[in-house]
Amino acid sequence: MQPAIEVKHVSKRFGNVRALSGIDLEIHAGEFFALLGPNGAGKTTLISIIAGLTLADSGSVSVMGHNVITEYRQARQSLGVVPQELVFDPFFTVREILLIQSGYYGIKHNGDWVDEIIERLDLTGKANANMRALSGGMKRRVLVAQALVHKPPVIILDEPTAGVDVELRQSLWDFIRQLNQNGHTIVLTTHYLDEAETLCNRVAMLKEGKIIALDSTQNMIGKLPAGKSVRLRLLPDTLPAALQTLQLSHSGGIVELRIDTYAQVESILSALRSAQIEILEMHLQQPDLEDVFVNMMRNSGNEVT
Amino acid sequence: MIGFFTLLYKELLRFWKVGFQTIVAPMVSTLLYLLIFFHVMEAHVEAYPGVAYTAFLIPGLVMMAVIQNAFANASSSMIQSKISGNIVFILLSPLSYHAIFFAYIIASIVRGLLVGLGVYWVTLFFFDIPLAQPVWSILFVVLGSAILSALGLIAGIWADKFDQLAAFQNFIILPLTFLSGVFYTIHSLPAGWQYFSHLNPFFYMIDGFRYGFFGVSDISPYISLLIVAICLVAISMLTIRMLKTGYKLRH
To answer: B178-227: per-residue pLDDT in tens?
Structure first.
């Protein structure tokens, strides 16, 4: 099947800074894909190259099979991009903006779909308000709406939930998830790793312009060397000798013990009971994408794929 | 074509929504020039035999208003979009660079013509100005404003900051306009000065435009037309090339 986005050997320099070096990436149609990485890793540069806002020094990019340089019109028609910065045109109202944006994509009578997006993004009350009068969260929603006016098969969101309140974040993700279920390919960058973990089926991690990990979200978490753990606050604050071998850390009155299976919890509890140590608090820790992320960023020097 | 018409509509709406600032204000300042020069100069100059100075001045001022506003429109629209970042919506869209070029240029021509027509219309109440060959006037005012619109687009794309744009305007556009014969006929100038005036493309726009009013000009309107047309083609090609390569727009 034709990939939604195909990036081949893309490199980009800004002066002396190597923003991207030899990126290869294929995002399949229908995927919900996350690009993760610390600030300055090259996520936005990569997105800009896919969107045609930045020109790669070498390599090629295509969107739905259309090269972003030689077939830029078809490529851009297939793509909806939510930029990271809160940009807006202060001369127009929300509805005007969306109808104008439709026109740029060659769509003449788009009122029905525009009204639907306005409603889905909870902008109905602001449809005729000037862009200047909107709060940051509202402006963010308009940016999302603008990216959707032409129903693009591929949607890229560059940190869409930065500075957005929890409620909106939830409704935004519901909407985006529904778009994904309707067949749209979704690519997002985010700093909230829990979002990427719950939403995305595949993740790429970037560091210093290189992809250091690319896998399904589940595999990525599964690969973590550090497994599950249990954190305890005990009275008295001592650990029986039998449990010493499991100890990962012990500070601030909290003991962290490594476990491989949840069944092990039972033996830990009985060991504590027979030593007559009381449990004041207990938390089970599971590895999540954040652990993978931290682990990757720390060890990436020798793990480049 | 829908994309082009939408961008054109947006660009027209942009200045129309602030019409007081973009149309009425420049009309007023142009009419102030006229009032001052009329007061000072009326008694003692005749530009051409039988053409009073004020009558001579009015087409010059109309043309000046047209080209200044055509330039201002394209340049300020572009730089505002660049600095506020909303140019991204145009750059992300499948609009062709030809569509972008023509939409910006035509909208700026329209604004220039609106200001020029406004000035001309007001002067009709006070002065009796002939319009001997209107086709020539229309031709030159459209071509002249197109050149300045394209220059405005170039300046807007090139400038990173408002003060760079102001420099472009103050050190290039304004001298070329003022020294082009808006306020005087170049035959009244010393020989060296006259020679330099002939190197100024704006001179041909204004001279040709004036020919449409009085049927008299410093240079044959055919020569002026040729020079203005060549300038327009050259500047348009440069502008389209900048848009195509993404100069200062796509990094």
So the answer is: 988 888 888 778 888 888 888 999 999 999 999 999 998 888 999 999 99
pLDDT 10s digits, A184-240 = 999 998 777 778 888 898 999 888 899 988 888 777 777 665 567 888 898 888 888
CATH topology classification for A5-222: Rossmann fold (3.40.50)
Q: Give the largest Cα separation in chain B, rounded.
A: 59
Residue among A45, A50, A76, A91 with most chain B CBs within 10 A, to mutate: A91
How would DSSP label each residue in B99-155? Answer: HHHHHHHHHHHHHHHHHHHHHHHHHHTT-----S-HHHHHHHHHHHHHHHHHHHHHH
Residue pair A132/B86 in contact (Cβ under 8 Å)? The answer is no
d(CA B239, CA B100): 10
Rounded to 10 degrees, the C-alpha dihedral B176/B178/B182/B188 comes to: -100
Taking the C-alpha atoms of residue B156 and residue B148, their distance in angstroms, rounded to an integer, is 12
- Across chain B, mean pLDDT equals 92
ipTM (interface predicted TM): 0.89
Verify whether the Cβ–Cβ distance A76 to B94 is below 8 Å: yes
Which residue type, as a one-letter code, is found at position B7?
A: L
- Residue A303 pLDDT > 50: no
- The residue in chain A having the minimum alpha-carbon distance to the alpha carbon of residue B18 is A91
